Each structure stands twice: as structure tokens, then as C-alpha cells.
């Protein structure tokens, strides 16, 4: 855990708000994520999870713990059962101190990018998990918006165009290397924005390593994690990002680092699209655009983290190679545009 993080104020706050024993409280950082910092709080009263924005330059809204807290509260009101319950939001004593979000700790297993000898899945189980994963995504996209208050979390009108322009701007602000394929893709996206208007609730970072699975019922999704980018907009933008993370066996190895979807038994991207289409009424005619956008977005996220690494704000050695992810995502997107294949 970073030694510069002082949790004394948080402990006092949790003693007052949740009656947690601050003297017996232990806070340790949980490894695994590439973005926001996640911590485990252990107390005599039980375990809790805590989230904090990363150090260095922030993506607009992407690391906002206050907003994530509001999203979790709205999901609770909507009756959604797979989001952790928010318990406390500590804003600190100074305006420049990053807010800390304390929430329910969900016991389970997260599939990372390497096999876990204590949690293995066979081909049949991977098939079932991939189906459950898309079923859960569909459930999110079809949530009732108005009565639940979820509609207040985003502005669906013009959402796709704002996303394309916004992620393009973020790329050029975080640019460190000359990668012409990323710039070509950015321009293509601007010229090919679909006119179809789909509206739904989006997670915006939906992939295996943001799912908490049950220890015993291995394909059961107990919780969906990391809600800080959730909003209301075109659900196919969410699907496109998930497809970008959904690596296949024949994909470049560098793009397999985020998911285990490339292992035998999982659906292919084409099967994911067909499965999703069979469970929704959304028009998938322009799915190529959404997939290309997803790849571009993945590349931009990697670029932003890589820039923070080069600036010394993040010292995780994994971040040193993220520029290769940017390049691979750009090339994959450019290839899809030229071949019109996903």
C-alpha cells in the first residue's frame, strides 16, 4: 500500500458513521486493477471494500467516487441485486483529498488474465459463464430508467457523438508515441456515427475481471464491480466495449491480458453478438462501429494509464508495457474497418 495514504481521518469517520472499531481496523490494498485503487477494510464487525481514484491526472468522471456512490444508490433503488451496497463516502478534510467510497464486501472469485489453480473452469462451464455474462449485461441494458431515477445519471441525446469526440480528445491529450492507426480510427469514428437512437443503462467497463463469481456455483455472477463510468446512453456502446475486451484464441496475445474469453468453451465475438441480439430488440446493423469504438476506447484507457506511468504517478511494472496494448488495439480496429469483420 502506498505509504503516502493516511487513513486516520477515514477511521475516525467510520467509527462515527458505521460504529466500526477504528483501533482494530486494518486497511490493505487489493492488487489486480489497472485504474482506481481498491482496498480491503478488515474490522471485528466484518469486511468492507473501499475505492479511491488513482494518483496523477484523472479521466473526466472516470474516477469519480462521489458519482460512483450515486450510481450504486440508484441501482439499489432500481432493485438491481448485483451491485455492492454503498455504505459510506468519506470526502476528507481538504478539497484536494480524493474521496473514499466504502461499500459492501462481496465474497467470491474474480477471473483475472491467468488461470487460477484453485478455481478452474471446463469448456462447458466457460460456455455457461459467457452466456450468463451476456445475460447480466442485457439485464442492465433493459433496466427501467425513469421511475428508478437511473435516467438522472446520464444524457442519452447525442451520447454516441459525445463519446467519440471525448475519447478522441482524451487520446490526443495523453498521446506519448506516434501511432497513426489510432489517429485513423479516431477520424473514421467521427465520420461513421450511427443515427439509430438506442437508450439504456450502461456499465461502460463490463468484462470478466469486473465480475465476482461464486466459489461453489462457478458460473454464477454474485456481483458486478467498478461502476464509476456507468451512465445512460446507447447500450450498444457498452456492448462494443465488452466485445473489444472479449479476446478470441486467434487474437494478438497482448489483447488477451484483460480477459480469459479466449479459452476454449467461451463464445466467440460473433456468438456474443448473436446471443445478445436474440435477447434484445436493439438494431445491430452498425455493430462494427460499436466494436471499433470499443477497441479505440480500450486503447485510450491504456494510453492514459501509460502516460501516468511515464510521469511517475503509477509505479506498477505492468503499466510499462501498456503502450503495446494501445498499438495492438489501434491495429485491430483499423483491420476491422478495412475487412468489415469483428
- Give the N-to-C terminal Cα separation: 40 Å
Tell me, what is the CATH class of the largest domain? Alpha Beta
Main sheet record: 5 strands, antiparallel
Number of domains: 2
Low-confidence stretches: none
Q: Give the amount of beta strand, in percent.
A: 5-15%
| Gyration radius, in Å | 20 Å
Structural class: alpha+beta
* CATH-level-4 superfamily name of the largest domain: Aminoglycoside phosphotransferase (APH), C-terminal lobe
Number of helices: 9
Task: Give the % helix.
Answer: 25-40%
Number of strands: 9
List the helices and strands in order: HEEEHEEHHHEEEEHHHH
- Can you list the strand order of the major beta sheet? 1-2-3-5-4
CATH topology of the largest domain: Aminoglycoside 3'-phosphotransferase, Chain: A, domain 2
Overall mean confidence score, pLDDT: 90
General shape: globular
| Second CATH tier, the architecture of the largest domain | Alpha-Beta Complex
Amino acid at each position: 500500500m502506498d505509504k503516502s495514504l493516511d487513513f486516520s481521518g477515514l477511521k475516525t469517520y467510520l467509527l462515527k458513521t458505521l460504529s466500526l472499531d477504528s483501533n482494530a481496523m486494518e486497511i490493505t490494498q487489493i492488487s489486480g486493477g489497472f485504474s482506481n485503487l481498491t482496498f480491503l477494510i478488515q474490522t471485528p464487525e466484518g469486511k468492507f471494500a473501499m475505492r479511491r481514484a488513482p494518483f496523477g491526472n484523472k479521466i473526466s468522471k472516470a474516477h469519480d467516487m462521489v458519482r460512483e456512490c450515486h450510481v450504486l444508490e440508484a441501482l439499489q433503488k432500481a432493485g438491481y441485486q448485483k451491485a455492492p451496497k454503498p455504505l459510506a463516502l468519506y470526502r476528507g478534510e481538504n478539497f484536494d483529498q480524493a474521496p473514499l467510497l466504502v461499500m459492501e464486501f462481496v465474497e467470491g472469485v474474480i477471473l483475472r488474465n491467468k488461470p487460477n489453480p484453485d478455481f478452474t473452469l471446463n469448456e462447458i462451464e466457460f460456455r455457461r459463464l459467457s452466456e450468463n455474462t451476456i445475460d447480466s449485461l442485457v439485464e442492465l441494458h433493459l433496466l427501467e430508467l425513469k421511475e428508478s431515477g437511473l435516467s438522472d445519471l446520464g444524457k442519452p441525446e447525442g451520447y454516441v457523438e459525445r463519446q467519440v469526440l471525448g475519447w478522441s480528445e482524451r487520446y490526443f491529450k495523453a498521446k506519448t508515441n506516434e501511432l497513426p492507426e489510432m489517429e485513423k480510427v479516431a477520424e473514421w469514428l467521427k465520420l461513421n456515427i450511427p443515427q439509430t437512437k438506442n437508450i439504456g443503462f450502461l456499465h461502460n467497463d463490463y468484462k470478466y475481471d469486473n465480475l465476482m463469481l461464486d466459489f461453489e456455483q462457478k458460473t454464477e455472477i454474485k456481483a458486478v464491480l467498478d461502476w464509476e463510468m456507468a451512465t445512460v446512453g446507447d447500450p450498444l456502446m457498452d456492448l462494443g466495449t465488452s466485445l473489444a475486451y472479449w479476446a478470441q484464441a486467434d487474437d494478438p496475445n497482448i489483447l488477451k491480458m484483460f480477459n480469459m474469453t479466449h479459452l476454449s468453451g467461451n463464445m466467440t465475438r460473433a456468438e456474443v453478438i448473436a446471443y445478445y441480439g436474440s435477447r434484445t430488440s436493439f438494431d445491430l446493423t452498425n455493430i462494427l462501429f460499436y466494436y471499433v469504438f470499443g477497441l479505440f476506447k480500450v486503447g485510450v484507457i491504456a494510453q492514459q494509464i501509460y502516460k501516468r506511468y511515464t510521469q511517475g504517478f503509477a509505479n506498477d511494472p505492468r503499466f510499462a508495457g501498456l503502450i503495446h496494448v494501445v498499438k495492438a488495439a489501434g491495429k485491430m480496429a483499423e483491420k476491422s474497418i478495412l475487412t468489415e469483420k469483428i
